């Protein structure tokens, strides 16, 4: 029952935020163009509900073709592949704003397990049946794992928090995660480690 209500909240909030933040989208796009050219939006395949792939949107924060340089899917604090504007976007999490469109499309929710790459940390079929529970709901812009340690957690720890979130899904818990996400973003805690799976 709550999942239906949650979807209505997601659509309503995403619509309002997209309309309200449209000028900011334009400003960010222009700054990216001046800083490192096009494209402005980075599109990457991620796994969504039931393990289905979807196009995941972010403001581009790395130089083009960075998947062929360095640690590929891994990003560290001083990663030279990150653009000047990209550092600001990542530090403030503004690079995540285009995922509001993912929410409207039905690919994502505001709260849920972060969507993973189709091949990292594992292919979908390589997750255990217990671990596949993280795919029972729409992935989120933020989630319990993000407020419990973000990228400082191991993948096993992240998945345990994802499953814990799903097992205790409620409006109260979602509000708690949103409030804690604001604190995490402002403090920038847990934002980098050697195991970050991110834009390539």
Q: Could you characterize the architecture of this molecule?
A:
By secondary structure, the protein is mainly alpha-helical. It has helices at 2-36, 84-92, 99-105, 144-147, 155-167, 171-187; strands at residues 41-47, 53-59, 109-111, 140-142. The strands form two sheets. The protein has a two-stranded antiparallel ribbon with strand order 1-2. Strands 3-4 form a two-stranded parallel sheet. Strand 1 (41-47) and strand 2 form a beta hairpin. It is globular. The termini are far apart. Mean pLDDT is 88; it is low at 193-200.
How do the strands and helices of this protein lay out in sequence?
Blueprint (H helix, E strand, L loop, with lengths): L1 H35 L4 E7 L5 E7 L24 H9 L6 H7 L3 E3 L28 E3 L1 H4 L7 H13 L3 H17 L13
Parallel strand pairs: 3-4
Antiparallel strand pairs: 1-2
Helix pairs in contact: 1-3
Summary keywords:
mainly alpha; 200 residues; two-stranded parallel ribbon; 6 helices; two-stranded antiparallel ribbon; 42% helix
Low-confidence stretches: 193-200
Helix content: 40-55%
Number of helices: 6
Q: What is the spatial order of strands in the main beta sheet?
A: 1-2
What distance separates the N and C termini? 37 Å
Q: What is the H/E order? A: HEEHHEEHHH
- Overall mean pLDDT stands at 88
Number of strands: 4
Query: Strand count, sense and closure of the main sheet?
Result: 2 strands, antiparallel
Find the structural class using helix and strand composition: mainly alpha
Which descriptor suits the 3D outline? globular
- What is the count of structural domains? 1
Please compute the radius of gyration using only Cα atoms.
Answer: 16 Å
């Amino acid at each position: 029952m709550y999942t239906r209500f949650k979807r209505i909240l997601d659509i309503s909030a995403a619509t309002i935020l997209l309309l309200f933040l449209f000028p900011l989208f334009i400003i960010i796009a222009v700054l990216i163009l001046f800083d490192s050219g096009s494209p402005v939006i980075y599109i990457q395949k991620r796994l969504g509900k039931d393990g289905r792939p979807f196009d995941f949107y972010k403001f581009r924060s790395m130089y083009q073709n960075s998947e062929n340089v360095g640690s590929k899917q891994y990003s560290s604090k001083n990663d030279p592949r990150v653009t000047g504007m990209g550092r600001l976007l990542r530090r403030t999490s503004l690079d995540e704003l285009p995922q509001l469109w993912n929410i409207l499309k039905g690919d994502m929710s505001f709260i849920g397990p972060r969507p993973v790459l189709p091949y990292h940390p594992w292919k979908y079929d390589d997750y255990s049946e217990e671990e596949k529970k993280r795919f029972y709901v729409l992935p989120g812009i933020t989630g319990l794992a993000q407020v419990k340690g973000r990228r400082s957690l191991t993948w096993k720890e992240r998945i345990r928090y994802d499953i814990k979130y799903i097992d205790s899904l409620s409006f109260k818990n979602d509000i708690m995660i949103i409030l804690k996400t604001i604190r995490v973003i402002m403090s920038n805690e847990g934002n980098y480690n050697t195991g970050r799976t991110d834009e390539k």
